[in-house]
Amino acid sequence: MQYYHSVHLNEEQCQACTICTTRCPTEAIRVYQGKARILDERCIDCGECMRTCPQDAKTSRVDQLDEVFRYPYAVALLPPSLYSQIPPAQFHVDGLVDALAAIGFDATADVGHGAEHTAAAYKEYLQEAAARPVISSACPAVVRLIQVRFDELLPNVIPIESPMETTAALVRETLANEGMKPEDVGIFFVSPCPAKVTAVKQPAGHSHSNVDGILSMRDVYQELYPRLNHKGNPGGRRLFPLARPGVRWGYTAAQAFEVRGIHLSLEGLDQVVQVLDDLSLGKLPAVDFIEANACPGGCIGGCLTVQSRFQGQVNMHRNIRTLPTRSPLQREDFQTRYAAGFYDMDLPLEPRPAQPLHEDMGQAMQLMLRQEEILHRLPGLDCGACGSPNCKSLAEDIVRGWTTEMDCIFILRESVQNVAKELWDLAQQVPPTLHKRDRETP
């Protein structure tokens, strides 16, 4: 299968520092011949390599703002994390809509509104779910992490669409009821991270996305910020009402606060991987719900944002004070949609296993035994200096034929020392003829 990836490597800027190889949660990066390489089947587009690369050699593929003008009616999907980027002095809900209209959008729809629908759907699902704990499906990087590395936990993932997809579906439903043709409506999500780009370009759990394009939050912010104090009404329209409960989804613990029950709120891939490891070993059976966010702080810590996550938290806390406290969600409308499967994923989440060592099972077993033999010869320090994330992955790369044991600096040093010793020993040897002359010399 061919995978789409938002995260892209700029080889000219890569300095082969190997930092990205040790930070990748799925061991999807190697450094060969002086440049990083991303393994398609293992990459989950979490953006951790973008966050940690000191050379800015990793970037995210996104759509350009010019794409907006291809559609007669363009809608901007605004994630809650966008509100964390705007300083409180410049923040005003109506002013934000006007600024987006000045950029070229005919309407805006807040993903926080879809998040309230998602939270209600989570509550309903928790009442009927057999597997415990259930894991939020809102973060596409976490969903793909489970597909690649923890596929035994896929039954625990809530088969409910993300707030982004739910909001886009509500937009299409609303505009269709107004008589608009689907092909005339372009829906663009302002993304804080590359994982959401991939979730639109190659969806997991559904056959197609209701979103037409993904814009980088940084790109939109550059156009948006100068227009926030725009005077007058350029014709902007807000499709849905907005309240604090949905906007809180921009940072960690908001999902768990809405769903309640015995829960864990995780932020950052280190925490997520640690807890998923525990779950795969049968631990944490008493937990009902796990909110897992790949980015530190939640979506406000995404690598396509402008502000630091700490400034984002401050901005968010102050900005949401201007919003209504009660959710505008209509319970009867929600129940009708839930019963009709409006919020459900339409496809099962499938595992994404790594490429086997060999197509033939017998050959694969022999390669696994060779891999174990090589691993025993390696130092076990997991330094990453070889260009592989750790010694185990280096042993695998060797049997795949991608590299050799000499790429381990410790084995290389030992080999050089052995050669040097052999040369020294050889230098001490005297040919037999010289020995004879020495005996005959007076």
Describe this structure as you would to a colleague:
The protein has 442 residues and is an alpha/beta fold. It has three domains: 7-60, Alpha-Beta Plaits (2-Layer Sandwich); 65-339, no CATH class; 366-428, 3-methyladenine DNA Glycosylase II, Chain A, domain 3 (Orthogonal Bundle), CATH 1.10.15.40. It has 17 helices and eleven strands. The strands form four sheets. Strands 6-5-8-9 form a four-stranded parallel sheet, with helices on both faces. Strands 7-11-10 form a three-stranded parallel sheet. Helix 4 (111-128) packs across helix 6 and helix 14 crosses helix 15. The radius of gyration is 27 Å and the shape is elongated. It starts with 6 loop residues before the first strand and ends with a helix.
Task: Give a quick rundown of the structure.
The protein has 442 residues and is α/β, with parallel strands linked by helices. Helix content is 40%, strand content 11%.
Attribute tags:
alpha/beta, 40% helix, three-stranded parallel β-sheet, 3-methyladenine DNA Glycosylase II, Chain A, domain 3, 11 strands, Alpha-Beta Plaits, elongated, four-stranded parallel β-sheet, 442 residues, 3 domains
SSE blueprint:
Elements: E1 7-9, H1 19-23, E2 29-32, E3 35-38, H2 48-52, E4 58-60, E5 73-78, H3 93-103, E6 107-110, H4 111-128, E7 134-135, H5 140-149, H6 163-177, E8 185-191, H7 194-201, E9 213-216, H8 217-224, H9 244-247, H10 254-259, E10 263-267, H11 269-280, E11 289-293, H12 309-319, H13 331-339, H14 361-377, H15 391-399, H16 409-428, H17 432-440
Query: If strands are numbered along the chain, what order do they take across the biggest sheet?
Result: 6-5-8-9
Look at the helices and sheets and give the structural class. alpha/beta
Describe the biggest sheet? 4 strands, parallel
- Count, helices: 17
Return the domain count. Answer: 3
Mean pLDDT: 89
